[in-house]
Amino acid sequence: MKLTTKGRYAVTAMLDLAIQQSAGSVCLSDIAERQEISLSYLEQLFGRLRKSGLVESTRGPGGGYSLGQTPEQVSIAAIISAVDEDVDITRCSGNENCQQNTRCLTHDLWSDLSNKIQNYLEDISLGDLIKRQSVQTIAARQDTVLLKRRDDIVAP
Amino acid sequence: MKLTTKGRYAVTAMLDLAIQQSAGSVCLSDIAERQEISLSYLEQLFGRLRKSGLVESTRGPGGGYSLGQTPEQVSIAAIISAVDEDVDITRCSGNENCQQNTRCLTHDLWSDLSNKIQNYLEDISLGDLIKRQSVQTIAARQDTVLLKRRDDIVAP
DNA sequence: AGAATACCTGAGTTATTTACTTGGTTATTA
DNA sequence: TAATAACCAAGTAAATAACTCAGGTATTCT
User: Fold this and answer.
1) Cβ-based neighbours of B136, under 8 Å, separated by 6 or more
2) Tally of CA atoms within 13 A in the half-sphere of B69 that contains its CB
3) Which of A76, A91, A106, A107 to mutate against chain B (most B CBs within 10 Å)?
4) Which of A91, B53, B88, B150 has a CA-to-CA distance to A131 between 20 and 30 Å?
5) How far is residue B114's CA from residue B139's CA, in Å, rounded to a whole number?
6) Which of A80, A84, A105, A116 would best serve as a mutation to test chain B binding (most B beta carbons within 10 A)?
7) Which domains occur in chain A, in start order?
8) Interior CA angle at B36 toward B138 and A92, to 5°?
9) What is the model's pTM?
10) Residue B123 carries which DSSP code?
11) Inter-chain CB proximity B105 and A138 less than 8 Å
12) Contact indicator for A42, A5 with CB cutoff of 8 Å
């Protein structure tokens, strides 16, 4: 399992989308502001998420992204594998050719761990995360901050 | 949890050591050959493993390394944390300051996963790995290859 | 004593990957 | 037609990982 900022950003952005989408489609610049992620970087990530069918897009003013499935149907594992190439921690990426075309001494250990992580993340959906109190609290705070910032711009 | 080649090398080398140490202390150049890891890189890693008490060293001819504890006492988690700095996948390294000094929207998710991985690797010891049939098979093959290579050098 | 072995150390270098930017184009709506 | 926002590809900069180099020190064997 390759767990980097890229995957974390993708999950964070998807969760933001899931929380906000009751108000219709959500544009990336809003997500970028709330989650403090570079807009163009988000665009890259959402290109991949779209190709995987996890999100749908509408162009033009008032447009943005919405979930392609219900929050309950979108697992964290699916998001990560949509933006990261592989979901494996073995050196050979699961090909079993880590040492002279056969498995290295610890291949199975990493392979087993990869599966554990994969299963864990498959079992958690965006729907599960939304229900968590801590997520609600943080989302509310981020909302307030964003609205306040916009207020300041309009009437300083 | 930061899982990189460094940690994998360390675990592989430690497992090699655990398998071979019945014959007394094992020198790094042998491990380097069997596991195809650069000798100087191994020296770095074993410097850290020694400071953590996981291995003991004897200098001079016939010297090498031996385990500082029984294989059953050495967990995989201990090896990885001896060579990698942190064992956490959150962006803030567990400091909970990922966004403006508070937790980001997905902090708890990564934090929980980190704990899962940590627990999993704490529960596996070198002793457990040695018992596995696949490990025995691969170790035997690596032994043969090494001995054959030495034969070839002595009598080509 | 001297050569060989093998650990020990730190500073440097190279390669890879990640994160991010730039500079556009296309579709849609008001 | 002007503004908005998705779409896209290529490039770059920073970080980190992996590895090398050039010494050293302790120990043993001859």
Assistant:
1) B130
2) 15
3) A106
4) B88
5) 30
6) A105
7) 5-86+125-154 (1.10.10.10)
8) 70
9) 0.87
10) S
11) yes
12) no
Residue B150, burial from CB neighbour count under 10 angstroms (0-12, 13-18, 19+): exposed
Confirm or reject contact between B99 and chain A (CB < 8 A): yes
Residue B100 pLDDT > 60? yes
What's the confidence (pLDDT) of residue B91? 58
- DSSP assignment of A41-107 equals HHHHHHHHHHHTTSEEEE-STT-EEEESS-GGG-BHHHHHHHHSS----STTTTSS-TBTTB--TTH
Mean pLDDT of B79-99: 68
Enumerate helices (H) and strands (E) in chain A, giving the number of each.
7, 2
Q: In the complex, which nucleotide's C1' lies nearest to the CA atom of residue A58?
A: D6
Please tell me the predicted confidence (pLDDT) of residue A145: 72
B11 closest CA partner among A110, A17, A48, A99: A110
